[in-house]
Amino acid sequence: MRQLRGQERAITGNRQTNLAFAEAYGAGTLDETTEAALGWCRERARQTGIRTVTTGTGAALRMLAATADAKAVAEIGTGTGVSGIYLLHGMRPDGVLTTVDLEPERQTFAKQAFREAGFAGNRARFIPGRALDVLPRLADGGYDLVFCDGDLMECLEYLAESLRLLRPGGLVCFAGVFADGRTVDSGVQPAEVLRLRELLRAIRESSALAPALLPVGDGLLCAVKRA
């Protein structure tokens, strides 16, 4: 790597500071009960080796759900409930989150977390199973937002299902598209990173979508389904 000169170092440092500030900006913006529930979720995730969305990613998901005035959201990858709490906070008060995960134990954690955050039991529908087995059973055009945080090797299939599930003007979002910097690394990369590159290309080139890549967390790829 070439040596950075003074001005370049300053620009790089400023960008890192700006990104850190943006990531932390949404922290503490929820009520104490919800923040406590999120802390509990993150601790369960740490204990079980599950990676959760960051505060910045969660804040973005909450904002996008609110922007879409979302009443119906589908989530691929329940985890311990962190992303679900953010999504539910952005959704309409009568909105329902349908969340899918291969591991029922994780959904048990999420159910408890949602209760602790103050959400009624009818605000979430938990479906255990493989996403590509579950998604075909969901209604065409019945969702305002689809959030994908599942198997990276299945991301293109998630995209195809999302396009079917979303209403015109609905949003699809993919977490973790930076893959810890590997997506833009020119070195040899594993199959899931190559798959992510295909996803990025497919969404950018699709005439059916208007995309944006948000530099929060490990990268949040979002796109609106055109009318």
Automatic annotation (TrEMBL):
GO MF annotations in UniProt: O-methyltransferase activity; S-adenosylmethionine-dependent methyltransferase activity
Gene3D superfamilies: Vaccinia Virus protein VP39
Keywords, ordered alphabetically: Methyltransferase, S-adenosyl-L-methionine, Transferase
GO terms (BP aspect): methylation
UniProt entry tagged with the keyword Nucleus: no
Name of a matching Pfam family: Methyltransf_3
Cleavable signal peptide: none
Protein name listed in UniProt: Methyltransferase
Organism: Streptomyces natalensis ATCC 27448
